[in-house]
Amino acid sequence: MATSTQTTKEKKEQQKTKTINGAQAVIQSLINEDVKTIFGYPGGAIMPIYDALYQNGSKLKHILTRHEQGATHSAQGFAKTSGKPGIVFATSGPGSTNLVTGLSNAMVDSTPIICITGQVHSQLLGFDAFQETDIVGISMPVTKWNYQVTKAEEIPEAIAKAFYIATSGRPGPVLIDITKDAQLQDFENFEYKKITKVPSYYPYPKLNMEMLREAANLINNAKKPLILAGQGITISDAEEELKTFVNKTGIPVAATLFGLTAFPSRHPLFVGMLGMHGNYAPNIKTNEADLIIAIGMRFDDRVTGDTSRYATNAKIIHIEIDAAEIDKIIKTDVAVLSDAKKALIKLNELVQKNNFDKWLTEFRELENIEIKTVINLDIYPKGDEIKMAEVVHEVSEQTNGEAIAVTDVGQNQMMAARYYKFASPKSIVTSGGLGTMGFGIPAAIGAQLGRPDRQTVVFVGDGGFQMTIQELATIWHYKIPIKIILLNNSCLGMVRQWQQLFFDKRYACTIMTNPDFIKISEGFGLEAKKITEREDLKKSVSKMLEAEGPYLLEVAVEKIDNVFPMVPGGASVSEMMLKA
Amino acid sequence: MEKLYTLNIVTENNIGLLNHVTIVFTRRHLNIRSITASESKIKDIYTYTIVVKTTEELIGKVAKQLEKLVGVYKVFVYEDHELIHQELALYKLPISAIKSGINIEEIVREHNARILDIETEYILIEKTGHKEDTQKLLKALQPFGVLQFIRSGRVAMAKPMKSLDEHLMEKENAYTYNDL
Description:
The structure holds two protein chains of two kinds.
Chain A: H1 2-17, E1 20-21, H2 22-32, E2 37-40, H3 47-55, E3 61-64, H4 68-82, E4 86-90, H5 94-97, H6 100-108, E5 113-119, H7 135-139, E6 145-149, H8 155-167, E7 174-179, H9 180-184, E8 186-187, E9 204-205, H10 209-221, E10 225-229, H11 231-235, H12 239-249, E11 253-255, E12 270-273, H13 280-286, E13 291-295, H14 301-304, E14 315-320, E15 334-337, H15 340-350, H16 357-379, H17 388-399, E16 404-407, H18 411-419, E17 428-429, H19 440-450, E18 456-461, H20 462-467, H21 472-478, E19 483-488, H22 493-502, H23 517-523, E20 527-531, H24 537-546, E21 551-556
Helix pairs in contact in A: 2-3, 2-8, 4-6, 4-19, 10-15, 12-15, 13-16, 17-18, 17-24
Chain B: E1 2-12, H1 17-27, E2 32-39, E3 45-55, H2 56-68, E4 72-79, E5 83-94, H3 104-110, E6 114-118, E7 122-129, H4 131-141, E8 148-151, E9 155-158, H5 164-174, E10 175-176
Antiparallel strand pairs in B: 1-3, 1-4, 2-3, 5-7, 5-8, 5-9, 6-7
């Protein structure tokens, strides 16, 4: 026994003094951070890191996406469902510039991803060397932090800092750019220490109890309060605390797009989604409420509509971890600078139950109007053509709302958000702030790998599908069992809808002649089926869900179909339209 | 209403941080009127002094965005009346200016400037003051043929007594580094 302890000790000593190169230090650092999955694409300037990865093949699984952009979206999907940061490798030059869309998307959606890019030799920096680009300069506005490493010994600390910054406070993307010579350089005494503090970076505000008491006071005296639940609840794992808060106060809850899985959609106090294509009641009622309790959300313009006519009768409580979000869009009356969980735990001790029956009835009345004039026509349509909404509804029913639902961007996204009835937390993966078409397919790959135990479905339109269609090869290569629901309306639906409503039906460049998606999918090795008739929907969805491997179900849906209700651009939330 | 605002931005000494800071202004479509960056009394802590003209609302938002950057410790926003501020200007005149008959020295004294250097070909004058003052001297020297003129960005100090260390401590106390 004693001998074996000694051996371990000796081994540890040996490890400590072992000389390794920068590339190996990258891999060792990632292993120390318990990374298991990496998304990436090799190239000249990152070859030493790939070589080190090859030599450590058993500990890390590398997913070769077919484009670096795909890697960033996969990493985001992975982060959203697993709660761990997504890791991306890319080479210099075009490899790194291909990350920019994903970084920007992760930045605005507060998703922790860590991108490691190769860079040309440090002596060539600034010389326009082959595949040299200033990715640190380019990515500055779209990363939470970035850093260029030119010496191997800097690598462990840079990576430790990257993990700490990406995942703490309001999460976000970071990028570490490592010159090729730093990857190849040997250095002694590799030691990985996790970082728990970075000077000048203040991720966690201490809770101000005075503000919290003021908030509680407003809550306890409100007659028509409304909770706006955002992604901050999901990020801080405050789903249970929110439930307690709602049950204790009896206040109705509306959710942002990312807040959709922060609260069970079947709860009696859930009143629907906010925003441009959200539900009718929470939008209209926003302007009648006397108190808005915004938790972990940022008053995006898709949520507020015209800000000068937003929440006109309400006092605003904003619980938010990022000080820069307070008063950025909507002036608050009480700002609680905190993560959602900590604030809710304390707030739950201070609030009391009030009777909001009448207030809630008003929501239900508006909800009934929406059901009658929009929802029923969407999910039980009378026309011959299949509607997107009924497809989403069918998938939602057959999965019991328990799947991870990934979406692309556009009508497919809004229909998925409206009609997929999310039953469990951390189940929506979508591109919110940036609205990145092409996000869906690669994000679904990451979402599935982040939670291999859960079923992952992805709703995608024919437009977005073609933007990252090459990732079908990734799905096939790694046999990732995602279920793709391709809602094909042969046009760029959301833009077409706007052209119909606001540009006098001048359909500029939105009608598409599409390839044969089934042949394409089969070419990529996927099981695929296309349906055009309603009678085939139920059994096709069930066949898709039962398939063991990846599956693509293409549904030919109605072309001139619109997402309603809708708050038109520049209108107030109270002017939400139920139909054109 | 737009006003002149002076920001004192307390930062780490990092490559690229200045770029990161100016990007925040670019994103808000704000033109930087002047910028000065130099080491503070604490080693490796830098102060950027940036002057912009904008509204109170916007500058408040910009300050918060800046303070969010990793590498930025603290951002102070001041209006002119809250500050003592100075700029430094250098003026190069041909040596013929001395021989022109008008007393250069008198002008220099009147403007509280000083002669920094006299060489065989030129004379170098230095003045510190507000922009209007350095501008006034420029106008006065114009007839002699100003060969070169350069003015620094503003350096500024707030009137309140609180020290930087106190401010930093205050911020440190309002936050934690770990989610505990």
